[in-house]
Amino acid sequence: MGSDVRIVIVGASLAGLRAAEALRGQGFDGSLTLIGDEPYEPYDRPPLSKAVLLGIMPPDHAALPFRPDLDAQWRLGVRATSLDLEHNRVVLSDGDTVEFDKVLIATGVRARPWSNSSEAALDGVFTIRTCDDSRRLNERLSAGPRHVLVIGAGFTGSEIASVCRERGLSVTVTERGPAPLVGALGGVVAAVAADMQRDHGVDLRTGVTVTGLDGDGNGQLCRAHLSDGTTLDVDVAIVAQGSIRNTDWLFGSGLAAGPRGVTCDAGCRAFDINGIVTDNVFVAGDVARQPHPLYDYQLLALEHWGNAIGQAEVAAHNMIHDGLRRRPHLEIPAFWSSQFGVNIKSVGIPTYSDQVVITQGSVADRRFVAAYGFRGRVTAAVAFNQGKWLDFYRGLIESAAAFPPDFDVMDREEPFEVRASELPDPAVLSHGPTVAVTGHLPTERRVEFVSLPK
Question: What residue stretches are annotated with the FAD/NAD(P)-binding domain (predicted)?
Fold first, then answer.
């Protein structure tokens, strides 16, 4: 690709940075521009709800290293407001425009704010997504609040609750579901997460929601109202109710972009609103909505660190290669979380399951592996303090191995009991893995169809 080609990357976080590095690493010598709405160079977000809140890492130490020869133009602290595909340009919030030949959308997500704007403005109400969010919350937790409320018991909420207990703070967690992490891991494993929280002194309230937040008349948070009619005296509330994909700026662009993300093919090329793949618009990271062959080509939007890097590298490769030299993104999703002294790791997609079985270790010891299955195939595995085994389970998922797994293990202490994974009814989904992923080198990665078990 010639040096006169202009590539613009909208989103200067993990996916955007890694795509830029991959472009330069593969010999792209044209113009490269990165646009980011925060005034900071790219930084790592996972430590923001862990090490930074524990006070063991200053926020500015979360910066991501990058190659010194990146030779990019940085447009930081300015937001992209629209994408003009007729004239191939990005319009910025300061009125400027940046023209491109190819563009990568890597705008990620933002924290979902508290629904009542006046209550959200109270001193003591926080969300956490950015470096500044983490810095402000760390300062408040360091000041020793009397009681902390965490609204939502997903991974971020659970990690914050863990931090609060590690800092010796009194904390209540509210969760509309029956247990923490239930929406991601299902009821069987989520029950273990609930026990972990309560064992560490968390006041866990499940099956309830926060219906309102009160101020003390001086703009300071003082009270929370719950759906069961109870109230809590709190001076800090962290809203951890998920995220919103940053696609607003793409409305009217002609792309297949909406609240669920920007739809793209397995090669990270964006679709337009007619379902036709584009040639010069690519997507990567949390904002991407992409089909995966192991999950019946359903469109998946994954907010995972490793997935962002994998998509970024595939997008960068395909931006400067054509035809048969293009690659698909076929990596198996994986994520990790550290909370209450336990390292939780996952491979595959646990929500695409209707059954689960403890294959190794002991639930009572918080040291085990749970394998998930649907329609007779292994679809995911989750490990509590047993992450060393996940490469083995990744192989089972990629090869569409039969569920329940048919192998002998030496360290299983639990009865080998296949149970319902207690996730949404899979009958309303279509996610039977009917393919296997083969090949080791990026140029060899492909899929082949396999027969479903009788």
Answer: 6-311
